[in-house]
Design goal:
Elements (H helix, E strand, L loop, with lengths): L12 H12 L5 H9 L3 H16 L2 E6 L3 E2 L6 H4 L3 H9 L6 E7 L6 H15 L3 E8 L6 H18 L2 E5 L16 H14 L5 E5 H4 L1 H7 L6 E4 L16 H11 L3 E4 L13 E5 L1
Parallel strand pairs: 1-7, 1-8, 2-9, 3-4, 3-9, 4-5, 5-6, 6-7
Helix pairs in contact: 1-3, 2-7, 3-8, 5-6, 6-7
Protein backbone atom coordinates (compact mmCIF):
# COMPACT_ATOMS: atom_id res chain seq x y z
CA UNK A 1 0.00 0.00 0.00
CA UNK A 2 1.38 3.41 -0.92
CA UNK A 3 2.43 5.83 1.76
CA UNK A 4 2.53 9.61 1.79
CA UNK A 5 6.02 10.60 0.61
CA UNK A 6 6.64 13.71 2.66
CA UNK A 7 6.19 14.59 6.29
CA UNK A 8 3.13 16.40 7.55
CA UNK A 9 3.73 20.10 8.23
CA UNK A 10 1.46 22.98 9.12
CA UNK A 11 1.60 26.30 10.94
CA UNK A 12 -2.03 25.84 12.01
CA UNK A 13 -1.95 24.61 15.61
CA UNK A 14 -5.48 23.23 15.31
CA UNK A 15 -4.45 20.99 12.43
CA UNK A 16 -1.50 19.60 14.39
CA UNK A 17 -3.91 18.39 17.08
CA UNK A 18 -6.31 16.95 14.52
CA UNK A 19 -3.41 15.27 12.71
CA UNK A 20 -2.65 13.31 15.86
CA UNK A 21 -6.26 12.10 16.03
CA UNK A 22 -6.27 11.15 12.35
CA UNK A 23 -3.08 9.15 12.64
CA UNK A 24 -4.48 7.38 15.72
CA UNK A 25 -7.71 6.55 13.91
CA UNK A 26 -9.85 8.57 16.32
CA UNK A 27 -13.28 9.96 15.43
CA UNK A 28 -13.28 13.72 14.84
CA UNK A 29 -15.60 16.00 16.78
CA UNK A 30 -17.85 18.80 15.55
CA UNK A 31 -15.20 21.30 16.67
CA UNK A 32 -12.52 19.40 14.74
CA UNK A 33 -14.62 19.43 11.59
CA UNK A 34 -15.25 23.17 11.89
CA UNK A 35 -11.52 23.76 12.33
CA UNK A 36 -10.89 21.83 9.10
CA UNK A 37 -13.33 24.03 7.24
CA UNK A 38 -11.86 27.22 8.75
CA UNK A 39 -8.22 26.45 8.00
CA UNK A 40 -6.42 28.18 5.14
CA UNK A 41 -3.77 25.44 4.97
CA UNK A 42 -5.40 23.47 2.16
CA UNK A 43 -2.26 21.41 1.51
CA UNK A 44 -2.06 20.15 5.10
CA UNK A 45 -5.77 19.34 4.96
CA UNK A 46 -5.26 17.44 1.71
CA UNK A 47 -2.25 15.59 3.19
CA UNK A 48 -4.36 14.22 6.03
CA UNK A 49 -7.28 13.27 3.79
CA UNK A 50 -4.99 11.59 1.27
CA UNK A 51 -3.26 9.61 4.02
CA UNK A 52 -6.63 8.24 5.15
CA UNK A 53 -7.66 7.55 1.56
CA UNK A 54 -4.48 5.59 0.85
CA UNK A 55 -4.68 3.76 4.17
CA UNK A 56 -8.18 2.57 3.22
CA UNK A 57 -7.83 2.03 -0.54
CA UNK A 58 -4.23 2.38 -1.62
CA UNK A 59 -4.09 3.62 -5.22
CA UNK A 60 -7.31 1.88 -6.22
CA UNK A 61 -9.87 4.28 -7.75
CA UNK A 62 -13.29 2.96 -8.68
CA UNK A 63 -15.49 4.50 -11.33
CA UNK A 64 -18.93 3.81 -12.70
CA UNK A 65 -22.15 5.17 -14.09
CA UNK A 66 -25.67 5.25 -12.70
CA UNK A 67 -29.05 5.97 -14.17
CA UNK A 68 -30.70 8.50 -11.90
CA UNK A 69 -34.15 7.89 -10.51
CA UNK A 70 -35.38 10.89 -8.56
CA UNK A 71 -38.14 11.34 -6.02
CA UNK A 72 -38.96 14.77 -7.43
CA UNK A 73 -42.09 14.98 -9.61
CA UNK A 74 -44.53 17.87 -9.89
CA UNK A 75 -42.43 19.70 -7.35
CA UNK A 76 -40.38 18.28 -4.51
CA UNK A 77 -41.93 15.12 -3.05
CA UNK A 78 -40.14 15.69 0.22
CA UNK A 79 -41.36 19.26 0.63
CA UNK A 80 -44.92 18.43 -0.44
CA UNK A 81 -45.35 15.26 1.58
CA UNK A 82 -47.05 15.28 4.96
CA UNK A 83 -44.11 13.38 6.44
CA UNK A 84 -40.85 11.74 5.31
CA UNK A 85 -42.30 8.21 5.58
CA UNK A 86 -45.09 9.12 3.15
CA UNK A 87 -42.51 10.50 0.75
CA UNK A 88 -40.39 7.35 1.11
CA UNK A 89 -43.38 5.14 0.23
CA UNK A 90 -44.15 7.22 -2.86
CA UNK A 91 -40.52 7.20 -4.00
CA UNK A 92 -40.02 3.44 -3.57
CA UNK A 93 -43.06 2.80 -5.78
CA UNK A 94 -41.05 4.27 -8.68
CA UNK A 95 -38.32 1.66 -8.43
CA UNK A 96 -38.09 -1.49 -10.59
CA UNK A 97 -38.75 -4.84 -8.96
CA UNK A 98 -35.12 -5.95 -9.16
CA UNK A 99 -31.68 -4.38 -9.48
CA UNK A 100 -29.57 -2.00 -7.45
CA UNK A 101 -30.68 1.44 -6.31
CA UNK A 102 -28.43 4.19 -5.05
CA UNK A 103 -30.25 6.14 -2.36
CA UNK A 104 -29.09 9.73 -2.61
CA UNK A 105 -29.31 11.84 0.54
CA UNK A 106 -29.32 15.59 0.23
CA UNK A 107 -31.29 18.75 -0.04
CA UNK A 108 -33.31 18.02 3.09
CA UNK A 109 -30.82 17.14 5.84
CA UNK A 110 -33.36 17.85 8.55
CA UNK A 111 -35.49 14.85 7.46
CA UNK A 112 -32.79 12.66 5.92
CA UNK A 113 -32.50 10.16 8.79
CA UNK A 114 -36.24 9.56 9.09
CA UNK A 115 -36.56 9.37 5.32
CA UNK A 116 -33.74 6.82 5.14
CA UNK A 117 -35.46 4.64 7.73
CA UNK A 118 -38.66 4.86 5.71
CA UNK A 119 -36.92 3.89 2.47
CA UNK A 120 -35.20 0.91 4.08
CA UNK A 121 -38.46 -0.39 5.53
CA UNK A 122 -40.39 0.16 2.30
CA UNK A 123 -37.76 -1.69 0.27
CA UNK A 124 -37.79 -4.63 2.67
CA UNK A 125 -41.59 -4.92 2.57
CA UNK A 126 -42.42 -4.09 -1.04
CA UNK A 127 -39.29 -4.49 -3.17
CA UNK A 128 -37.31 -7.41 -1.72
CA UNK A 129 -35.58 -7.88 -5.09
CA UNK A 130 -33.98 -4.43 -4.93
CA UNK A 131 -30.55 -4.09 -3.32
CA UNK A 132 -29.94 -0.68 -1.71
CA UNK A 133 -26.70 1.26 -1.81
CA UNK A 134 -26.72 4.75 -0.33
CA UNK A 135 -24.81 7.71 -1.75
CA UNK A 136 -25.08 10.85 0.33
CA UNK A 137 -25.01 14.19 -1.45
CA UNK A 138 -24.47 17.35 0.54
CA UNK A 139 -26.24 19.95 -1.55
CA UNK A 140 -25.75 23.70 -1.18
CA UNK A 141 -25.64 24.57 2.52
CA UNK A 142 -25.20 28.14 3.58
CA UNK A 143 -22.47 27.85 6.22
CA UNK A 144 -19.61 25.70 7.46
CA UNK A 145 -21.68 24.94 10.54
CA UNK A 146 -24.54 23.52 8.46
CA UNK A 147 -22.16 21.53 6.28
CA UNK A 148 -20.57 19.98 9.36
CA UNK A 149 -23.97 19.20 10.83
CA UNK A 150 -24.91 17.40 7.63
CA UNK A 151 -21.71 15.35 7.70
CA UNK A 152 -22.37 14.34 11.29
CA UNK A 153 -25.90 13.29 10.28
CA UNK A 154 -24.49 11.08 7.55
CA UNK A 155 -22.03 9.55 10.01
CA UNK A 156 -24.84 8.88 12.48
CA UNK A 157 -27.01 7.30 9.76
CA UNK A 158 -24.17 4.96 8.83
CA UNK A 159 -23.78 3.94 12.46
CA UNK A 160 -27.52 3.21 12.59
CA UNK A 161 -28.24 1.62 9.20
CA UNK A 162 -24.82 0.38 7.98
CA UNK A 163 -25.89 1.17 4.42
CA UNK A 164 -23.98 4.29 3.35
CA UNK A 165 -21.31 2.92 1.05
CA UNK A 166 -20.25 6.26 -0.38
CA UNK A 167 -20.54 9.98 0.15
CA UNK A 168 -20.49 12.45 -2.72
CA UNK A 169 -20.05 16.04 -1.50
CA UNK A 170 -21.74 18.02 -4.23
CA UNK A 171 -22.55 21.70 -4.33
CA UNK A 172 -25.55 22.44 -6.52
CA UNK A 173 -26.07 25.54 -8.73
CA UNK A 174 -27.21 28.73 -7.06
CA UNK A 175 -30.96 29.10 -7.11
CA UNK A 176 -32.05 31.43 -9.89
CA UNK A 177 -28.57 31.65 -11.45
CA UNK A 178 -28.44 29.08 -14.22
CA UNK A 179 -25.05 27.48 -14.71
CA UNK A 180 -23.39 29.41 -11.88
CA UNK A 181 -22.01 27.32 -9.04
CA UNK A 182 -21.64 28.44 -5.46
CA UNK A 183 -18.11 27.26 -4.80
CA UNK A 184 -14.58 27.35 -6.18
CA UNK A 185 -12.19 24.51 -6.92
CA UNK A 186 -10.43 25.13 -3.61
CA UNK A 187 -13.73 24.91 -1.74
CA UNK A 188 -14.65 21.71 -3.54
CA UNK A 189 -11.34 20.15 -2.48
CA UNK A 190 -12.08 21.20 1.08
CA UNK A 191 -15.54 19.57 0.94
CA UNK A 192 -13.99 16.30 -0.23
CA UNK A 193 -11.09 16.35 2.23
CA UNK A 194 -13.24 17.20 5.25
CA UNK A 195 -15.72 14.47 4.29
CA UNK A 196 -12.94 11.88 4.12
CA UNK A 197 -11.64 12.87 7.55
CA UNK A 198 -15.00 13.13 9.31
CA UNK A 199 -16.74 10.10 7.76
CA UNK A 200 -14.40 7.44 9.12
CA UNK A 201 -17.19 4.84 8.92
CA UNK A 202 -18.10 5.51 5.27
CA UNK A 203 -15.95 3.51 2.88
CA UNK A 204 -15.87 5.69 -0.20
CA UNK A 205 -15.74 9.39 -1.09
CA UNK A 206 -16.93 10.13 -4.63
CA UNK A 207 -15.99 12.98 -6.94
CA UNK A 208 -18.37 13.87 -9.75
CA UNK A 209 -16.62 14.67 -13.02
CA UNK A 210 -19.74 16.49 -14.30
CA UNK A 211 -19.74 18.98 -11.44
CA UNK A 212 -16.00 19.27 -10.84
CA UNK A 213 -14.75 18.93 -14.43
CA UNK A 214 -12.32 16.14 -15.12
CA UNK A 215 -9.10 18.04 -14.34
CA UNK A 216 -10.38 19.11 -10.92
CA UNK A 217 -11.70 15.60 -10.29
CA UNK A 218 -8.14 14.36 -10.85
CA UNK A 219 -6.91 16.58 -8.02
CA UNK A 220 -9.74 15.31 -5.83
CA UNK A 221 -8.15 11.85 -6.04
CA UNK A 222 -5.27 13.33 -3.98
CA UNK A 223 -7.61 15.08 -1.53
CA UNK A 224 -9.48 12.06 -0.20
CA UNK A 225 -11.68 10.86 -3.07
CA UNK A 226 -11.30 7.24 -4.18
CA UNK A 227 -14.25 7.04 -6.58
CA UNK A 228 -15.23 8.96 -9.72
CA UNK A 229 -18.91 8.99 -10.58
CA UNK A 230 -20.63 9.80 -13.85
CA UNK A 231 -24.16 9.66 -15.19
CA UNK A 232 -22.96 7.88 -18.31
CA UNK A 233 -19.93 6.05 -19.65
CA UNK A 234 -21.37 5.47 -23.13
CA UNK A 235 -20.92 8.86 -24.75
CA UNK A 236 -17.81 11.02 -24.92
CA UNK A 237 -18.52 14.66 -24.02
CA UNK A 238 -14.85 15.47 -24.65
CA UNK A 239 -14.79 14.12 -28.22
CA UNK A 240 -15.14 17.51 -29.90
CA UNK A 241 -11.96 18.66 -28.20
CA UNK A 242 -9.74 15.73 -29.10
CA UNK A 243 -9.48 12.16 -30.43
CA UNK A 244 -12.75 10.26 -30.62
CA UNK A 245 -12.33 7.79 -27.80
CA UNK A 246 -15.09 6.41 -25.61
CA UNK A 247 -15.61 8.31 -22.40
CA UNK A 248 -14.73 5.16 -20.46
CA UNK A 249 -11.31 5.24 -22.11
CA UNK A 250 -10.93 8.92 -21.32
CA UNK A 251 -11.89 8.34 -17.69
CA UNK A 252 -9.38 5.51 -17.33
CA UNK A 253 -6.68 7.73 -18.84
CA UNK A 254 -7.44 10.59 -16.44
CA UNK A 255 -7.39 8.29 -13.39
CA UNK A 256 -4.08 6.75 -14.45
CA UNK A 257 -2.60 10.20 -15.09
CA UNK A 258 -3.44 11.05 -11.47
CA UNK A 259 -1.24 8.13 -10.37
CA UNK A 260 -4.18 5.92 -9.42
CA UNK A 261 -5.33 2.47 -10.56
CA UNK A 262 -8.76 2.62 -12.24
CA UNK A 263 -11.23 -0.16 -11.44
CA UNK A 264 -14.71 -0.16 -12.96
CA UNK A 265 -17.04 -0.88 -10.10
CA UNK A 266 -19.96 -3.23 -9.77
CA UNK A 267 -22.80 -3.30 -7.28
CA UNK A 268 -20.66 -3.01 -4.16
CA UNK A 269 -17.80 -0.75 -5.28
CA UNK A 270 -15.78 -3.84 -6.11
CA UNK A 271 -14.32 -4.82 -9.47
CA UNK A 272 -17.19 -5.14 -11.93
CA UNK A 273 -17.86 -8.71 -13.03
CA UNK A 274 -20.90 -7.85 -15.13
CA UNK A 275 -22.58 -4.68 -16.34
CA UNK A 276 -24.91 -3.15 -13.75
CA UNK A 277 -27.67 -0.62 -14.28
CA UNK A 278 -28.28 1.29 -11.06
CA UNK A 279 -31.27 3.41 -10.24
CA UNK A 280 -30.78 6.46 -8.06
CA UNK A 281 -33.40 7.54 -5.55
CA UNK A 282 -32.99 11.08 -4.25
CA UNK A 283 -34.20 12.00 -0.79
Amino acid sequence: MPTTRHEFHTDDARLRTIHGKVMAGESLTREDALALYKTTDILALGWMANSVRERMHGNRTTFGAAVELTAHADGCAWCGAKNPREAAEAAVKKLPETGTVQIVLGGHPEIAEEAMAGVMEELARKKPGVAARAVAIGSQLSSDEKRVEFLLQVRAMQERFKCVDAYAPRVMPRIGVEGVFSSTGMQEMKHIAVARLVLHNVAHISASWELLAMKVAQIALRFGADDVESTTLRSNPLAEFGPKKTFREELVRFVEAAGRVPVERGESYGAMESKVTAGRLQI
